[in-house]
Amino acid sequence: MNKEITTQLQHKINTKTKPLGSLGKLEEIALQIGQIQNTVSPELKNPTILVFAADHGLADAGVSPFPKEVTKQMVLNFLNNGAAINVFSKQNGINLKVVDAGVDADFTNNPNLIHAKIANGTKNIIENPAMTIDECKKAIESGKEIVEDQYKNGCNIIGFGEMGIGNTSSASLLMSKITGINIEECTGNGTGHDSKGLKRKKEILKQAFNKYQLNGDSINLLATFGGFEIAMITGAFLKAEELGMTIMVDGFIVTSALLVAHKIKPDILKNCIFTHTSNEQGHIKMLKYLSVKPILNLEMRLGEGTGAAVAYPIIESAVNFLNEMASFEDAGVTNKE
To answer: Is residue 306 within 8 Å of residue 85, measured between CB atoms?
Structure first.
């Protein structure tokens, strides 16, 4: 972090025509983005959300009330502009791309679809690790390449979403292994379990958790419990930080990928803006573990990157006030002594 730029940014923020600190969280966001871009006049260019989709073998064990084919159906919904993420991205001028990371279906070409399939879904964790180490590494590298392509297209602020029936289970397992929090406390309703379904989900995840005694190696953890979309998002986080991009962090599943990326590169958080608190019970504990405070809490738990899309105008407001609001000197307004 450039101390000189930080000092200049803080001075610029403090001398705007307002009481000191009166724009609250917006001032923190403006400072952070200025630090990321190493300038007192940051810009948000070609904001983009990438929705990574993949199927999970663990869904066959009954961890979700929805069948696996919903993953394919939702990808088609994204491509037909029918999902919440489409609505919010269009509303806020965000470029949206859908990535087939490992859906158990084949899709025809579409300008908004990125073909990056590793396999037709992961294996059932109850029986085998979700993926091989080679598959996991390939997914991570693919996520990095996709982000680099967006960067080359002029994007400097990016968010990640996901779709995959069963992926809250993978996120819960990764969270528990990384944070040390009991697996039952990391497990929530996902796509909408009743109490009986949630109890069954917790029993299945406890069985999966106890099956593998791992040494904490990040890639091994990700290969054992993750999904192709989660592994790609992990790589996407790492590359976005490397390229000096501002990263909008969505909810529970995306934050599980960040937990892995954070183990690999602890200072990645300096590039991350946490957009919202998911209503999935494990997310609050994840955020506490990372010692971060999100912008919003709208009791959302949809995924898809919707939290990032809804929060983007607030991030935009932070940059706009920094660049466009007059200072006391500019406006001829007397500042307090």
So the answer is: yes
Instruction: Say which CATH architecture domain 48-315 belongs to.
Output: 3-Layer(aba) Sandwich (3.40)
- Per-residue pLDDT tens over the stretch 194-224: 777 778 899 999 999 999 988 779 999 999 9
- The answer to whether residues 100 and 116 touch, using CB atoms and an 8 Å cutoff, is yes
CA 226 from centre of chain:
15
* Strand stretches in the chain, DSSP E: 48-54, 95-102, 113-115, 157-163, 246-249, 272-274
Annotated active-site positions, please?
A: 304
- 77 within 8 A of 296, measured Cβ to Cβ: no
CA distances for 52 relative to 184, 210, 283, angstroms: 26, 28, 19
Could you state, in order of their start, the residue ranges of all structural domains in the chain?
3-43+321-331, 48-315
- Distance, in Å, from the CA atom of 102 to the CA atom of 139, rounded to the nearest integer, reads 9
Pairing of strands 157-163, 246-249: parallel
> 0.90 cut: is pTM over it?
yes
What DSSP string describes 126-185?
A: TTS-SS-HHHHHHHHHHHHHHHHHHHHTT--EEEEEEE-TTHHHHHHHHHHHHH---GGG
Fold match flag (3-43+321-331 vs 48-315): no
336: Cβ contacts below 8 Å, ≥ 6 apart: none
Element (H, E) at 28: helix 25-37
Q: What is the CATH number of domain 3-43+321-331?
A: 1.10.1610.10
Question: Per residue in 15-61, pLDDT tens?
Answer: 999 999 999 999 999 999 999 999 999 999 999 999 999 999 999 98
